[in-house]
Specification:
It contains 6 helices and 7 strands. It has a 4-stranded antiparallel β-sheet. Strands 6-1-7 form a 3-stranded antiparallel β-sheet. It is of the alpha+beta class.
């Protein structure tokens, strides 16, 4: 149930671009449970759908709360193409959920009881780094695996300078 810390310093074994999606909701009116609870349950349904089909491209996720009103998920994706493919696929729950939200908005039935948001970041290789010290596998390292920090560099500048074998061949 509780993850054991990995001793020492490690870093994420990510190669290539890192694709990160932050997606969440804000409860604007606590009393409107009938409005915000379905949104929250929809997120869990989508995460379950993605967990059952690893080929969709979700590598890992972290559930977080920013306040008693705001809940979100940090998601790590294999590629932006796989993220977009999931978001727009008519046979996936995300597509149906957004259709309902869009329909309510067009009909004037969106009452402002719950806020929705997302931010997507594509960080090219060489534009991200990580370090974990006596931590269970977490975040980017949980999504991509982790290696001893010495393999990528003891200092942040060295980890930023790391290039995968494929990127090194393209540059050379």
């Amino acid at each position: 149930m509780f993850a054991k810390p990995v001793p020492g310093r490690t870093t994420a074994a990510a190669e290539g671009d890192a694709v990160v999606l932050l997606i969440g909701m804000r409860i604007n009116h606590f009393w409107a449970v009938h409005q915000w609870l379905p949104v929250m349950l929809s997120m869990f349904r989508m995460l379950g759908e993605l967990a059952r089909d690893h080929d969709r491209g979700l590598l890992g996720r972290v559930l977080l709360t920013a306040s008693p009103r705001t809940y979100y998920v940090v998601q790590y994706w294999e590629s932006k193409e796989k993220l977009y493919a999931y978001a727009t696929s008519p046979d996936m729950f995300h597509h149906r959920a957004w259709a309902v939200i869009n329909r309510k908005e067009r009909q004037g039935k969106a009452r402002g009881h719950v806020g929705l948001w997302h931010e997507t970041y594509i960080a090219p290789e060489g534009s991200y780094e990580s370090i974990y010290f006596d931590m269970p596998t977490f975040g980017l390292a949980k999504a991509h695996g982790q290696v001893p920090v010495e393999r990528r560099g003891r200092y942040a500048k060295d980890r930023f300078a790391h290039r995968s074998a494929g990127a090194a061949r393209e540059a050379g």
